[in-house]
Model the fold of this input.
Amino acid sequence: MQSLISISDLSKTYASGFVALKNVNLDIRKGEILALLGPNGAGKTTLISIICGLVNPTSGTVRVDGHDIIKDFRKTRAMIGLVPQELTTEVFASVFTTMVYSRGLFGKKPSPQYIEKILRALSLWDKKDSPINELSGGMKRRVLIGKALAHEPKILFLDEPTAGVDVELRKDMWTLIRQLQTDGVTIILTTHYIEEAEEIADRVGIINHGEIIVIEETSELMRKLGKKQLILELHKKLESLPADFDIPNLEASADGMQLIYTYDIHMDRTGITALLSRLSEKGIRFRDLDTKQSSLEDIFVTLVGNNQS
Done:
């Protein structure tokens, strides 16, 4: 797939001496949804701010559709829509006026029809004449998304777009994002809602201490790093496993009422048959069983934990 954004050896050190990014290399594909995950201070917002031309890099290059973000700033910035974390809106302007103004800033001809389309998609059409300072926090978040889309960008950055918003708005946003991807928009988002990244993203990048730890297809990341567990509910409490019980990756729960066996589903032999056979030999009976697949959150916690310095 063609790269739309190419980042090479990108670093950023602030005047305070804080190193926000360290030699980041990343290609973002045209038409994909890429989720960037990382703890607070990991460098996510700095990376987005540099690509959008809001922060100057210390070293390295960023090219958008083949254009350098510094030499060709106007051209690259016109291709990008940005939804920041903060609710920064013109408090006294109406919703419709704000959208029209944002579109005009990028030299786009007026298009009331397009503005209406976006406002309807964001469930804002009935608020089009309302001053922004009268809107709820969730509605203001919708306006920020509308502003970012007003000039019909090819790339959309969403920096924690669902932070502090209700479930209904979150669902509306993801529906809109999927439609934008269908329309050919490339979407990069940061989020603390890891389950959303797992559901919506084509690829996931995990960043910590200013470095990209991993960048991988979501499904492939789950396949490579995910674990599966077989959970056996016992008939009676097990004080401890027998001393000669030679099954690796098996442990008892704290209350002694479960046995938890961790295995790799991609191995030719999972070891489950041997486990059940040994349990029968030892007279350890179970009344129910269940399986649990590692989530993206489990993988994230593991990777970030291993990367702590």
In short: The mean pLDDT is 86. The CA atoms of residues 174 and 200 lie 8 Å apart. The first strand starts at residue 3 and ends at 13.
